[in-house]
Amino acid sequence: MLAVALAAVISACASNEEKEDTDPVELTEIQESVRLTEVWSTNIGDIDALRYAMLTPGLIDGKIIAANSDGDVVALDRSTGKRVWKTDIERSISGGVGVGLGIAVVADFRGRVVALDLNTGEQRWDTQLSGEVVSTPAVGAGMVVVQTVDGKLLGLNAETGAQTWRHNTALPVLTLRGTASPVISGGVVFAGLDNGKLIALSATDGITRWEQRVAIPQGTAELERVVDIDGAPLVRGELVFAASYQGRVVALSREDGRGLWARDASTNHGVAVGAGQVFLSDADGSVHAYNVGNGQIQWTNSELLRRQLGGPAYFVDVVVVGDLDGYLHVLDPTSGRFVGRTRIDRDPIRIPLLADGNLLFALSDDGELVALRLER
To answer: Which residues contact 251 (CB under 8 A, 6 or more apart)?
Structure first.
């Protein structure tokens, strides 16, 4: 398998004559009606963007658990940012942080998965897998489920780390660098695959419940046929939402995978849901809103083209996306117009934003972890 990063694909397709068209658009002044105000911030250490480590923090029991690529895992008080514990696993972390069942789980570039005690940071167990992990392990239903870059979904016993089941997927010749993080909900594992399919498995034994194609490869060149699902599926009520690169965004029944609606889209991030809409940041830098019930497009904001947006978050009653220069852009969910903007760092914000009650958490590639609240 040959893996490529999205940025590499874009740069390889651009010529010097096209430079003006491939530069990120310049930001223009906006009329702000809301503000994202910093509550606390701390630097946890660098995130390895070159190897596409997507170290999404985990939120649980009033704590936020974060990791850097040097091997440090730190637990902070959600409200104050005060450190609760810090552990160095002495490995270069590439996947995490999964939380639940009293443990925090991370993985390294060589496929070793490590579980730490949520209260103390002490190591509970570690397990060696066959492939590299660059996504967040899912924790729930007595299991830790990990997706590896070589096409495997693995179910590990949450108490011991022992492998309980395995699901293999045949990979396309060419894929993006990265894999989707699996999600456990109601005893079922939902996982997006590099072949453009979404699959549902029993969390306890790995038996397939259903699988559904999100994207169909198009064209004759291998690059044209890349249809990875790299963003985590989103489960809301009786529906599962997923989106692929060079494919579609879809709403499916969580029970049997039956499609409710599908619309053309291209992203390597997950979607957000709120205010009766599904929000998606496209690979070209545009932001879209779709009606949650029928998928009809509600609006498109094209003022952030080529700014390498991260995935959107629905926070309180606004939509927030981060970009390559460390800006957080706040959009009105009903119109898509900008209503606020703040800068938390000068490095990109690729890692998914986390909305939790009255706080929004953002982590830059430089390791700047910031908690923000919305003010009017």
So the answer is: 239, 240, 241, 259, 260, 261, 262, 278, 292, 295
Averaged confidence pLDDT in the chain: 90
> Locate tokens 């874009």: which residue?
10
Instruction: Look at the block and give the residue holding tokens 């390559």.
Output: 324
In the chain, helix, strand, coil percent, each to 5? 5, 45, 50
How far is the C-alpha of 245 from the C-alpha of 10, rounded, in Å? Answer: 13
**Domains of the chain by range and CATH?**
2-6+33-375 (2.130.10.10)
Distance CA 330, CA 332 (A): 7
The predicted pLDDT at position 218 comes to: 64
What whole-number distance in Å separates Cα of residue 94 and Cα of residue 309?
21
User: Does the structure show a pLDDT above 50 at 23?
Assistant: yes
- Give the separation between CA 336 and CA 324, rounded to whole angstroms: 20
Q: How many CB atoms lie within 10 A of CB 142?
A: 15
Give me the phi and psi of 282, to 5 degrees please: -75, 160
- Residue 175 and residue 226 in contact, taking contact as beta carbons nearer than 8 Å: yes
3-state class (DSSP) for residue 244: coil
Give me the residue label for tokens 């606390």.
40
Pairwise CA distance, residues 279 & 316, whole Å: 14
Q: Which residues pair with 38 in a beta bridge?
A: 372
95 close to 135: Cβ distance less than 8 angstroms: yes
Q: Does residue 289 contact residue 333 with C-beta atoms inside 8 Å?
A: yes
CA distance 288 to 199: 25
